[in-house]
Amino acid sequence: MKVLILAGGFGTRISEETETIPKPMIQIGDKPILWHIMKYYTHFGFNDFIILGGYKCYTIKEYFANYFLHQSDVTFSLSDNSMEILNNNVEPWKVTVLDTGLNTMTGGRIKRAEKYLNNKPFMLTYGDGLSDININNLLKFHKVHGKSLTITAVQPEGRFGALEVADNNRVEHFMEKPQGDGAWINGGFFVCEPKIFDFISDDSSVWEKAPMELLSKEGELFAFKHTGFWKPMDMLRDKLQLEQLWHKGEAPWKVW
Questions:
Q1: What CATH number does the domain containing 46 carry?
Q2: How far apart are CA 91 and CA 202, in angstroms?
């Protein structure tokens, strides 16, 4: 089963990092967050990826074109212009990078991949979020319900600490960044049937709006609830938090 990764947005809310590279190429540790996402799917046996690029898509192409240079020690022989890979740190990946257009919306980007999917089910996720969701359980859930689309639903943490204040104004309890208001939101990590393409009109289609709303109205959208770790990298502080987890050896998504 192929895995589509949305990687074409401008990343304006983390512009400190995206002036020269697309958001999925922002590094966590010394690897792009895109690499972390792909490594996570590989743990569950999914190795065939379609990267849906747009903004500065060429940097993603260059990364995979020069993957050995990024990952391995090499010897260069300048006299005959040859190169020897000393330690072949290879991944079992097949990677297709599609330039889906600079201003194409998320639905339009997904639509551009239709012809590469051979009318078969596929995974879909965003190129800026990490989780410890069990992908195999997600797929089993999708197959059991037999609908066109399964979305992973998550409950994000609150942005601020919460105070429990008694009637006399004494703070009885403090919680550092508790769960939000209890609402479930779109956490990405989708499983899709080919039928979803019938709900995407053109490049202006926003995946999270009309397509998903129509699928919901037709009873074709089910939610897999995930209560574990989930973290989108929306802003610089999110990137720094993910880096801290990685460097401390506490990254929940590092299962390899």
A1: 3.90.550.10
A2: 34
